[in-house]
Specification:
Elements (H helix, E strand, L loop, with lengths): L1 E6 L2 E5 L5 E4 L20 E3 L5 H4 L2 H8 L2 E5 H9 L3 E5 L4 E3 L4 E6 L16 E7 L2 E5 L9 H7 L4 E5 L8 H11 L3 E5 L11 H9 L13 E3 L1
Parallel strand pairs: 3-4, 4-5, 5-6, 10-11, 11-12
Antiparallel strand pairs: 1-2, 1-13, 2-3, 7-8, 8-9, 9-10
Bound molecules: nickel (II) ion and manganese (II) ion.
The site of manganese (II) ion has 6 residues, from helix 1.
């Protein structure tokens, strides 16, 4: 499979069979995104929580592509009521889709739509495809149960927010990586706006000091997992 980073918390997964899964596609209003929503396609869209910088352009993309939303029940229900396809899940639950397994985890944060509707609990998500597991932490504070997530699931790639202010900053994200102990850490949710300015190379150096591998992806970069 391939993993592409659009900046902020927006990623695209493409399976060997060509199924495309977007996570938190915040593109058009995102000053750091190298693409606009009209340029991406998706079979599935996973949204970790309803904040505008995560739900982003999901509705526009789903309308054009007929994508299926995968989110926690309250947010999935909002999508269904708007006429979209959605698969309702909830935190702690996993489900085997045609492309692989999706499991939602806890995240300590909030979740409300841009027009003020409660959208359930925010989440992190574990996506297992072709034998590899990606843990997209969503927006979250540091929490000790990350240790359990790492113990119960062999994490290959941990996508972790480092921008501070709304989520973990660099030092908490280093501790999070130590708790999860993934093969590789990829920083996200930084430098999109002045308030979440952070240096990913400082994060990489701090992880190196505790023997954890880190890969800083450029905006628009795609890697083969
Ligand atoms: Ni958020
Ligand atoms: Mn956010």
């Amino acid at each position: 499979m391939k993993l592409k980073y659009f900046s902020h918390s927006a990623f695209q997964i493409t399976t060997e069979k060509g199924i495309v899964i977007l996570i938190d596609p915040f593109l058009d209003g995102n000053p750091t995104s190298p693409v606009k929503s009209a340029e991406v396609n998706a079979n599935y869209i996973i949204v970790t929580h309803a904040h505008g910088d995560h739900f982003g352009d999901a509705a526009k993309i789903a309308e054009r592509c007929g994508s299926t939303f995968i989110c926690v029940d309250e947010l999935a229900t909002i999508c269904l009521k708007q006429g979209f396809r959605a698969h309702n899940m909830h935190i702690g639950g996993g489900y085997n889709f045609e492309f692989g397994k999706v499991k939602f985890t806890i995240a300590h944060h909030g979740s409300i739509t841009t027009d003020g509707r409660y959208a359930g609990e925010p989440a992190g998500v574990l996506v297992t495809i072709e034998g590899k597991t990606i843990y997209h932490c969503g927006d979250t504070a540091l929490f000790y149960d990350m240790k359990l997530i790492g113990e119960m699931n062999k994490i290959d790639y941990m996508l972790v927010p480092i921008g501070d202010n709304f989520t973990m900053g660099i030092d908490d994200a280093v501790k999070a990586a130590e708790l999860v102990n993934p093969k590789t850490v990829i920083p996200m949710h930084y430098n999109t706006f002045p308030v979440i300015k952070a240096n990913p190379n400082l994060f990489l150096e701090k992880l190196k000091a505790v023997n954890i591998n880190c890969q800083v992806l450029k905006y628009g970069e795609e890697i083969v997992l």
